[in-house]
Amino acid sequence: METFTFSRAADPAEAIMAGAAASTAQQGAEVRFVAGGTTLIDLMKLDVETPKRVVDINRLPLAKVERAPDGGLKIGALVRNSDLAHSADVQRDYPVLSEALLSGASGQLRNMATTGGNLLQRTRCIYFRNTDTPCNKREPGSGCSAIEGFNRNLAVLGTSEQCIASNPSDMNVALTALEATIVIQGVQGERRVPIGEFFLLPGDTPNRETVMQPGDLITHVLLPPPHPGARSHYLKLRDRASYEFALASAAVVLASEGGAIRHARVALGGVGTRPWRSPEAEAALLSKPATRATFAAASEAAVRGAKPYSQNGFKIELAKRCLTSALATATA
Amino acid sequence: MPSDAATAPHAAVGRATVRVDGPLKVSGAARYTSDFHFPGMLYAVPVGATIASGTIAAIDTRAAEAMPGVRKVYTRHNIGKFYRVPTSSKALINERRPPLDDDAVHYYGQYIALVVADTFEHATAAARKVKASYSAVTNPNVSTSLAPAMGDASGKLPANEPRQPDSERGDPDAAFASASVQVDHTYNTPFETHSSIELHASVATFDGVRFTLYETTQAVMNSRQLIAQMLGVPTEDVRIVTEFLGTGFGGKGSVWPHSLLAAAAARDLRQPVKLVLTREETFECVGHRPHTQQRIRLGATSDGKLVSLRHDFIYSRARLTEYRENCGESSSFMYSTPNLRITSAFAGRDTGVATTMRGPGAVPGMYALESAMDELAVALKMDPVELRLKNEPAIDESKNIPFSSRHLKECLTTGAEKFGWSRRKPEIGSMRDGDVILGWGVAACTWMAARIPAQASVMFNADGSVRVASATQDIGTGTYTVLAQMVSQLTGVTVDRVKVVIGDTTLPPGPFSGGSMATASLVPAVAQAAREAIGRLLAAAAEGDSHFDKASVAQLDFHQGRVHRKGQQPNEGRSFEDVLAAARLGHVEGHGKSAGTRDEEHPAYSTHSFGAHFVEVAWQPEIARLRVNRAVTVIDAGRIINPLMGRNQIEGAVTMGIGMALFEETNYDARNGMPVNSNLADYIMATHADTPPMDVIFLDYPDTHLNEMGARGIGEIGLAGIAAAITNAVYHATGVRVRDLPVHIEDLLIAA
Ligand SMILES: Cc1cc2nc3c(=O)[nH]c(=O)nc-3n(C[C@H](O)[C@H](O)[C@H](O)COP(=O)(O)OP(=O)(O)OC[C@H]3O[C@@H](n4cnc5c(N)ncnc54)[C@H](O)[C@@H]3O)c2cc1C
Ligand code: SF4
Is residue A128 within 6 Å of ligand 2 at its C-beta? Predict the structure, then answer.
């Protein structure tokens, strides 16, 4: 761990000002906010994150889950993953989010982890986490160790020749299917970014993962009102039964009427370089009857164009089975 | 021993007794090695090589030396002198090369420097600033393909060393060739890492003459001998203390280089030095289970009688060790067959050294043998339990001597009964619970039983306590409790009044905790010590206690902690503390010393434990999800001294076996030889959620050939065979025969 200065922000403005002094909010940021610390401190101990300044944002008044005027939900960036998962509003109206959160990490970690921190958690690519090996995300231009190394847990969708790291979050997959909006306070004021535009593909700049700019503070996550009659489900597949990142996961929100699917939102986890919304799968579901055949076709559509690497080709088949099963469960 | 002790009201052996050290552990009062703190403590952090094969060209320590809090940065030039351990030494050490010995790098993570600072954080930060450059770097060989062309038509196997049969009888080749049913398959087990929760640590102090090292070791006496040897000081000048161990699974049996580094820094700086390895370093520098590749050939008659068994195995071996993974350990005596050959070889690999891991040899070996037995049962269309019953030997056919006590048949039949095995339908995927396909598998297990030399003392104290002492250690398995029970059994004093003192080399030399031998080894030494102490107590009563009116020793007896006249009841006599008070003695003490049986050249009996695992897996093909649903394990391990802790050992082993079968493997990167999944998030082991309901049954036949209490060991046997029981169940559920552990989701996607 490198030496850093530590301060506690009294209000959002103070945090934003401190953050704005950095040259980037992406890999290599000189200033970092700390929320639960379960990603940041871990990576600082590994020297993957080396901020000169750490600003504690835990005292900011952003820890509430509130009903939004439009009937949606306004989730504070500092709401702990456990609290969010057990919030009555989430359990009633957005069960897919609760399921996703509870499938992640461990009880202790969820008690610390926050909504904002979870959005910004980093990949579990082992080479990203090991400073002795080349990694384009950590050190642009150094090369990607994973493409010819251990990549069993990495992405098959949205990859580039520079980086195939998967976004490991469960929560982000559910938020993607729920079409969440990220509320960001920055030096220029407030921005509202749909989650589909929040995460970037790696392309030639895998070190840049989101639209976050220096000083940007995530204050809230907004969920639109629950779709009437919609049912949802999150399914996570992994080697062991608990405490492991997804090899493949699926979040689905579906509503049917008159024997046909009228509303479909599909996102995949563990297989994409970002939480993977699948408009292709959604199109394959719309106006179709909720049958196994429909689900199988949607799953085929979801992984079309997926690119297998030396160890992770099985994820394509696994993602298909995962999505098919999640769709079946949501409509059962 | 008082003849009726076993049936006395205080009989402690065999009773479910909660851990005597439990309160200390749950309250945090138990001191583990890294809990030891001393004034002036310094913290040492090693620097590891980032290549696996090559030479250190230069090490630049200047930046590190300039870091805050740094006291000294050591390389081979200033660490001071270490000595080698002669190859003739029988002590437990898997990496004989002293640390920082020369510029050669033999594996990724090998220590090349050591930073000592005033805090752990300062030392860690400075260690990252040590920069090494390397020359003559070669591509490491960490391949898990140990011998790609394993075997040819003639049966001659290519390998890196000429094959010597480890065991041989009859003509296995001819018998195999003419057998009506043949099975010939090769099984692989991966590199595995022990992953005890307690990290390896050493806290070293030096007073100018003597070293005291607080160690994470399963063998304090072994550590003392080797560390003294390597530091070049008399054995008496080294004291090793291990009060509690957050387990070792064999990984803490050997002495490891970090202990020498801590001692050398304390020697040089004359301040206490604490060195705690990181999780990554435990994957690199303190041993693992080697990769194995095992070819099994079974030939049988059409009614299922084995006529030939061949077991040819290769294990990975690091450059710096002679460690041998004896996969054929149990194959020679497990089943009856007139023709058999076991051969072994190794393949050199550029990894850290391997070491014993829970059930070394037999655990990977029994996975292969018990998988092959299942494949034979399938080929014969025979029930796998019946196949094993049919091939039960009358004697140990490899040595032509009787078994001291073997009840494998009863393990199999009892387990089958408990599990409901008779309801098994043999067709693949034919058993269901709703949408879930069930698979049932069985495997037998075995593990050796033996004694190693041990000494102990037992002392009756004036304060009414009984103290038992031995330089052995409790590695989490319950030695504190077992010793208290033994002494209670032998003296009639209740367990709560027995004080157990272990984990310190100043005590009478005790056994190491490995090979499941500690308990069995301690029995005769403790029994002798207790008898001697009782004899002295009776002498004190005869001489010094007027209550007995000058009775002779021969007229006195001792029961339930009381001295009394023969023919009278204990309550008519006097408590031992009253006897000691009357005789004005602070204590009386007895010593016991027993020899080992392990190296007997002509043993009269073949001594092993046996058992059987029955497992049900649940398979959901639509999401490729496989889970273990339930397990029944029957164990024949002699007399069980404490059924609570016994069950705990077997349940722990079955849990570990689920990891072995389905999750655990250490992956090395072929480009730099680095173990890549060197943390507990990426090295997948079974969690509580993976742990099914487990039924453990002990047959409890005392093996009095081994010791008077009839106790063998139970630490390792539970892990033997369990992986095969699981993969056999996986085959039954899915039709996929996994011969390459662990079973991956990838393997199962091809099923339905
Ligand atoms: C062993 C382990 C297992 C795990 N398993 C899973 C799993 O199975 N599934 C899963 O989804 N996750 C898993 N996680 C990841 C875990 O969910 C994340 O670490 C956690 O959600 C991060 O939240 P935090 O509040 O601790 O973030 P922090 O570590 O505090 O912050 C993370 C990043 O976000 C930034 N940040 C935080 N809040 C804000 C804000 N309001 N505005 C701007 N920037 C902000 C920080 O500067 C930092 O860069 C696991 C983690 C560990 C350590
Ligand atoms: S996949 Fe991405 S994160 Fe992993 S090594 Fe390659 S560049 Fe780095």
Answer: yes
Return the residue in B627, B669, B688 with the most chain A beta carbons within 10 A, the one to mutate for interface testing. B669
Amino acid B450 reads A
CA-to-CA separations, B424 to B441, B531, B694, in angstroms, rounded: 10, 53, 19
Instruction: Report yes or no on A194 lying in a domain.
Output: no
Q: Which two tokens stand for residue A71?
A: 């009937």
| Binary contact (A150, B746; C-beta < 8 A) | no
The CATH number that domain B361-450+601-751 falls under is: 3.30.365.10
CATH number assigned to the domain covering B4-30+451-594: 3.30.365.10
For residue A32, tell me if it sits in a domain: yes
pTM to 2 decimal places: 0.96
Same topology for domains B4-30+451-594 and B361-450+601-751, yes or no?
yes
Q: Does residue A67 lie in a domain region?
A: no
What distance in Å separates the CA atoms of residue A79 and residue A112, rounded to the nearest whole number? 9
**Strands across the sheet with A5-8, in order?**
A5-8, A53-56, A31-34
Q: What is the 3-state secondary structure (H, E, C) of chain A?
A: CCCCEEEECCCHHHHHHHHHCCCCCCCCCCEEEECCCCCHHHHHHCCCCCCCEEEECCCCCCCCEEECCCCCEEEECCCEHHHHHHCHHHHHHCHHHHHHHHCCCCHHHHHHCEHHHHHCCCCCCCCCCCCCCCECCCCCCCCECCCCCCCCCCCCECCCCCCCCCCCCCHHHHHHHCCCEEEEEECCEEEEEEHHHHECCCCCCCCCCECCCCCCEEEEEEECCCCCCCEEEEEEECCCCCCCCCCEEEEEEEEEECCEEEEEEEEEECCECCCEECHHHHHHHCCCCCCHHHHHHHHHHHHCCCCCCCCCCHHHHHHHHHHHHHHHHHHC
Residue-by-residue pLDDT tens, chain A, 332 positions: 889 999 999 999 999 999 999 999 999 999 999 999 999 999 999 999 999 999 999 999 999 999 999 999 999 999 999 999 999 999 999 999 999 999 999 999 999 999 999 999 999 999 999 999 999 999 999 999 999 999 999 999 999 999 999 999 999 999 999 999 999 999 999 999 999 999 999 999 999 999 999 999 999 999 999 999 999 999 999 999 999 999 999 999 999 999 999 999 999 999 999 999 999 999 999 999 999 999 999 999 999 999 999 999 999 999 999 999 999 999 99
Chain-chain contact of B690 with A242 (C-beta, under 8 angstroms)? yes
Q: Which ligand is nearest to the CA of A152?
A: 2
Angle at B28 between CA B27 and CA B32, to 5 degrees: 145
Domain count within chain A: 2
For position A323, which CATH number holds? Answer: 3.30.390.50
> Which residues sit opposite B501 in a β-bridge?
B469
Are residues B507 and B246 in contact, defined by beta-carbon separation less than 8 angstroms?
Answer: no
Query: Which of A129, A321, A322, A329 is the mutation pick for testing B, counting most B CBs within 10 A?
Result: A321
Q: Give the residue extent of every domain in chain B.
A: 4-30+451-594, 361-450+601-751
Provide the CATH number for the domain around residue A38. Answer: 3.30.43
CA pair distance A322, A307, nearest whole angstrom? 18
Residues B632, B416 contacting (CB under 8 angstroms):
no
A48 alpha carbon – ligand 2 mean position (Å) = 13
User: Contact B335/B306 with Cβ under 8 angstroms?
Assistant: yes
Q: How far is residue B175's CA from residue B456's CA, in Å, rounded to a whole number?
A: 51
Overall residue count recorded for chain A in this entry:
332
Q: Quick check: is A134 in a domain? A: no
Q: DSSP letter at B30?
A: S
The sheet with strand B556-559 has its strands ordered as B556-559, B562-565, B574-575
Domain of residue A16 covers 5-56
Ligand nearest to the CA of A172: 1
For the annotated catalytic residues of B, the residue numbers are 716
